[in-house]
Structure formats: structure tokens, C-alpha cells
Amino acid sequence: MRILGIDPGTVSSDFCLLEDREVRLEESIPSRVVAERPEDMVEKCLSSKGLN
Q: What is the pLDDT, as a whole number, of residue 11?
């Protein structure tokens, strides 16, 4: 089972991908980057470990 958690914050948006109870990916993207190019975060999430 894969679980993707996203924590949008003031300074950054953080996300964590868990697969079979193991952390597979942890990433932070500055909030200004997410605001300027939200499609980058979507693409990053979808391409993480075969989610796309």
C-alpha cells in the first residue's frame, strides 16, 4: 500500500511517501515555488515511485 502525505505550510510544502510502512521519499518545496508553479509539485507527487 502506498500513502502520500502532503503538508502545505507557510514556508514550504512537505510531502512524504510511505510504501508498506516504510518511508520511500521525503521532500520539501518552498511555498513560493509551489505558488509560482504548482504543476511542478503535482508532477513531483505523481512521478514519485510510480504513482503516475
A: 95
